[in-house]
Amino acid sequence: MIEILAHIIENEEIKIMAELGIWRSRLLRKVLSKYKDIITQYWAIDIWEPNDSHKKYQRTSKEDWNYLYLKACKLMLSFPQLHVVKASSLDVSELFPPDYFDLVFIDADHHYKAVLSDIKA
After folding, report:
1. Residue 34 phi/psi, 5° resolution?
2. CA distance 60 to 75
3. Contact by Cβ (8 Å): 22, 47
4. pLDDT in tens, 64-112
5. Contact at 8 Å (CB) between 25 and 71?
6. CA of 31: how far to CAs of 7, 18, 83, in Å?
7. Is 48:65 a contact under the CB 8 Å cutoff?
8. What is the DSSP string of 3-40?
9. Any idea what DSSP says for residue 87?
């Protein structure tokens, strides 16, 4: 996945990006480590709570979700362009004007209706 994003970031001059569905912050760490001089804003948006979208998320406890959220927040100390938001992607989408983002990476709830809602928002 990082190779595809790298190609897009490099060739499309991505400055402002959002990632919906962060879970363990692996992708955002990789992207910002490599492109911290290119990306000016990286919005990490997740509800960080149990859901039914995948079995691995169902096995994650509330305490583990809180830990993962704080771990993502801690990354803001290393990457000043990172903004971590604990909320639903649909609620957060209303905060930004149309065409605000150069790229939105959707990896939140993996059910068809949820993904379609994220795309529309």
Report:
1. -85, -35
2. 21
3. no
4. 989 999 999 999 999 999 999 999 888 999 999 999 999 998 776 656 6
5. yes
6. 11, 11, 14
7. yes
8. HHHHHHHHHHT--EEEEE--TT-HHHHHHHHHHTTT-S
9. S
DSSP type of residue 2: H
One-letter amino acid identity for 110? H
Indicate the pTM of the whole model. Answer: 0.87
**Domains of the chain, residue spans:** 2-6+15-92+102-120
The full length of the chain comes to 121
**Chain centroid to CA 51: how far?**
16
Q: Which residues contact 13 (CB under 8 A, 6 or more apart)?
A: 38, 102
- Sign for the pseudo-dihedral over CA of 117, 114, 10, 86: positive
Token pair recorded at residue 45: 């948006």
